Amino acid sequence: MFLDALAERYRNQPDKVAIQFSDDPPVSYGGLADTVNRTGNYLISLGIAPGDRVAAQLPKCLPFIYLHLAAAQIGAIFLPLNPAYPKAELRYFLADSGARLLFADRQKQAEIGAIQSELPALEALVFINPADSWESRVARHSGERRHPLPADSDQTAMLLYTSGTTSRPKGAQITHGNLTANITALHEAWGWRADDVLLHALPIFHVHGLVVALHGALHAGAAAVMLPAFDAATVLGLLCSRRFTVFMGVPTMHRRLYQQAGDQRYDLSGMRLLTSGSDRLPDDLFFGYQQTFNVTLLERYGMTETGMNLSNPLHGERRVGSVGLPLPGVSARIVDPKTETPLPAGEVGELQIKGAHVFKGYWGQPEKTAEAFTPDGWLRTGDMGAREPDGYYTLKGRAKDLIITGGLNVYPPEVELALMEHPAVAACAVIGCPDEEWGEQVVAVIIPKADAVTNEAEICAFCREQLAAYKAPRRVLFVDEFPANALGKVQKSKLREALCG
């Protein structure tokens, strides 16, 4: 399992750098092993047993990583929480998970302490200053590890809560076997090496930053340099230093790096792997990276419940607009969303996934779990897409985002691609709003470029020149920003709530 591979790294390369936060002293694999072991003993001293939920609402810091790995090592279930969650959301996650223990930033002591009485399962709160020495906190918990590595691959290792776009967030149970299957597939597909150096600028409460990026580096015995937050100027400077071989980002990050470069050209071709995920990579950014940075971004597709599913190849065509091919050990198919009959290449339907990396179910919600899977075990992703004849997959948007106007299907990404060709459009999102005559009407929500001059009529006419009339927006709304999640992905459900009336 993943922990077995990590234990091997501890033994075979104890002096090699594993993790370094900015300019702080690096942590070796041997040092990581020792502190994780002490942290596991510390959790046991606080009464944590296998299956107990341990929550952490901390900024990106070493204590968060130690707690995550230690919880997995003693068979507890780790619950990573966004530091930005307000009190009401935090209360929901802690109550739904039944967390027994919460580690949080000392700055939130009064805010979180006020809700403890409403959480009977929460037996202890531990408030820390992430900048203080974690090693001193766990120093007296040295000695032999008092806990064997979990032997059951079906044992839950993490609870990762979904974004809750259609209902209250659900806790996806990610097992030790899921983590192992996913990281093993990525190790093969992306060619992770022990001499890789990862520049890590993602949040670590999310599957992308914690599982795909950090687990990937540790599984390979590579080094991960952790930035507290993403800053385009800082990241671009570091990428140009030729110190790093791997960088993983989301389209928002890549857009800011591209904008930071301006009219200058940089050669990042020395980077072995630059990936983009968590949202669709716009075509202009795909080509812009090639021209400005002399590299081709590798786009891939994953979700909270599975980790990574599909990826453009490390060696081979990285196709614009495509999320690539199934990873090793992953099965994918496109089906008719009504009959769930597999569709031939080229036809649009729902993407379904099967493999050892797929989560085992939603925490405490057997009905939702049953709804998520077909009778023969395929995960209904809720994403619409098509498989090309050569096996590449292209996504067309979320099934719930599909717009049906006058009985015809409109896929928002297609309209968004057209909108981005307009010189006044900096960013856009397309949603469907109720319409008495047509069922739904296509609505474009646009962030205009600075100093750009345009209007609704011009945008609509522009789209009608590029798209069939029924696909062109009937309304255009201009905004300063979009509601977005922690990784910058536009939350279209909130746009619909705010704009559709």
Brief descriptors of the model:
GMP Synthetase, Chain A, domain 3; Rossmann fold; single chain; about 500 residues; alpha/beta; 9-stranded mixed beta sheet; about 25% strand; 15 helices
Describe the structure.
By secondary structure, the protein is α/β, with parallel strands linked by helices. It contains 15 helices and 24 strands. Helix 2 (29-45) packs across helix 3 (62-73), helix 7 (176-190) packs across helix 8 (207-220) and helix 10 packs across helix 11. It is globular, with a radius of gyration of 23 Å. The relative contact order is 0.09. The model has no long low-confidence stretch (mean pLDDT 91).
Concise synopsis of the structure shown:
This protein is α/β, with parallel strands linked by helices. It contains 15 helices and 24 strands. Among the domains are: 2-16 and 26-151, Rossmann fold; 191-296, Rossmann fold (3-Layer(aba) Sandwich); 402-499, GMP Synthetase, Chain A, domain 3.
The second-level CATH architecture of the domain at 2-16 and 26-151 is 3-Layer(aba) Sandwich
- Share of residues in helices: 25-40%
- On the 0 to 100 scale, the average pLDDT is 91
CATH hierarchy class name of the domain at 2-16 and 26-151: Alpha Beta
> How many alpha or pi helices?
15
Biggest sheet record: 9 strands, mixed
Number of strands: 24
User: Which stretches are poorly predicted, pLDDT < 50 over at least 5 residues?
Assistant: none
Beta-strand content estimate: 15-25%
Radius of gyration: 23 Å
CA-CA gap between termini? 50 Å
In the CATH hierarchy, the third-tier topology of the domain at 2-16 and 26-151 is known as Rossmann fold
Overall SS class: alpha/beta
